[in-house]
């Protein structure tokens, strides 16, 4: 079952099969979304082997501005 959540930033969040999260935004928010994506990837690399933390990995990113928004 898929769920849709409205984030505080105005981004849309879609949870797919209780484990994948797709975050999307309008084109004007893409620079901030790109920064969030880079930080998430760095955080994952730093702590992926930590026993007490579960860090989500960025599996896919698409910042194509020709679409109606972008996402990670």
The domain count comes to: 1
**What is the ordering of alpha helices and beta strands?**
EEEHE
Kindly report the average pLDDT value: 82
Please bin the fraction of helical residues.
25-40%
How would you portray this structure in words?
Strand 2 (12-16) and strand 3 form a beta hairpin. The chain has one domain (3-64). With 72 residues, it is an alpha+beta fold. It has one helix at residues 30-47, and strands at residues 3-6, 12-16, 20-25, 70-71. It is globular, with a radius of gyration of 13 Å.
Write a compact overview of the structure shown.
The protein has one helix and four strands, in the order E-E-E-H-E.
Keywords:
72 residues, alpha+beta, four-stranded antiparallel sheet, 1 helix, 4 strands, 25% helix, 24% strand, globular
Secondary-structure blueprint of this entry?
Elements: E1 3-6, E2 12-16, E3 20-25, H1 30-47, E4 70-71
């Amino acid at each position: 079952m898929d769920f849709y959540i409205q984030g505080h930033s105005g981004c849309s969040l879609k949870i797919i099969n209780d484990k994948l999260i797709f975050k999307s935004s309008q084109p004007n928010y893409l620079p901030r979304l790109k920064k969030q994506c880079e930080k998430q990837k760095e955080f994952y690399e730093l702590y992926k082997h930590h026993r007490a933390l579960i860090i989500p990995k960025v599996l896919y990113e698409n910042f194509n501005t020709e679409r109606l928004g972008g996402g990670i």
